[in-house]
Amino acid sequence: MKIYLDNSATTNLNPKVLKEMQKYFLEEYGNPSSQHKLGEKAQEAITKARESIAKELNCKPQEIYFTSGATESNNLALQGLAKANPSKRKIIISSIEHPSIAETCSFLETNGYKIIRIPVDNQGHIRLDILKKELTQDTLLVSIMHVNNLFGTIQDIEKIGDLCLENNILFHTDAAQSLAKLDIDVQKSDITMLSASAHKINGPKGIGLLYIKEGTKIQPLFYGGGQEKGLRSGTENVPGIIGFAKSLELQKKVNKKKIETLRDKLMDQLIKLGGKINGSLQNRIYNNVHVSFPLVDSSVLVQYLSNKGIYVSSGSACESKKEKEELALKALGLNNLETKSSIRITLNEEITEKDISNVVKEIQKAINKLKI
Fold first, then answer.
1. Contact 363, 342 (CB under 8 A)
2. Which of 64, 101, 182, 214 is the most exposed place for a label (fewest CB within 10 A)?
3. Which residues are catalytic?
4. What is the CATH number of the domain that holds 318?
5. What tens digit of pLDDT does each residue of 268-314 get?
6. pTM here?
7. Phi-psi category of residue 64: left, alpha or beta, with phi > 0 → left and psi -120 to 50 → alpha
């Protein structure tokens, strides 16, 4: 038995994506900066992919910059903006941001920036009333993730974007968990910058994007050949870019309702086993379950399930990152026991009702066996 339920961490590569990429590994492998025909073909492929991705976000192709992933995009968004706009030194984030935002802000804090961390309610929604009060003239940026990577709560980025626009403040969102899963219109939501990765949507690892609204003052983090209009130097990852565009196209066709129905059945059954669902029950991404089982150590539960061929997450294996994740869960209102007994289950389109039944049975066995 193999049931993969860690799709917020990464996803399997769609065979159709691999097929699309292979041509650019084996045949059209030219450097896009080269002036011969192989280079021209690679550049044409990048242009086509950029146009396709831009269409999904409702932005201009020239506003899409390719990176190695959402972590790099988040760093470029925050640090690049800070370098280009030194007069404003206040940045607002939420208390539940991904470490690539939280840690970057901690670094900026040591360099004299004022970082405001907006709390969330017990459902994981950002406190908009507190955000409003913090939108002052010295604010450079608001960075709020679209969907939380742990417990799946969806933020109202359209409302946040409106608030930022009203106060003439730039707005960045980490959309690593929402790209192609939720509708995103950067114009409608008044988004200045947006980060995402391909490997969260059955695309390849090592490729991401940063949308930057035209006219935004931003500087690169490193220098070299001047690729991506001088903002992100380095030979472009052509197969990755092609794979990103294809995975985005295919993700839009996923039967999200089917996954959500199975997710709801799983949540209902886990509650019957004594589990406590964390995050919003209604306003959450369709494939996420974050659940605490009091008196069961989550890391032991994860290993037990892994030995049965069921793969879920209890948070990072890295202690420093685990501490950051626990802070996000405590910001949600979880106590120490709930935090250390919680697991994240994230479904994909391959999951069946039989899989759900098997998972519930094994979790029930584990609870009976592992209770402290």
1. no
2. 214
3. 318
4. 3.90.1150.10
5. 999 999 999 999 999 999 999 999 998 899 999 999 999 999 999 98
6. 0.96
7. beta
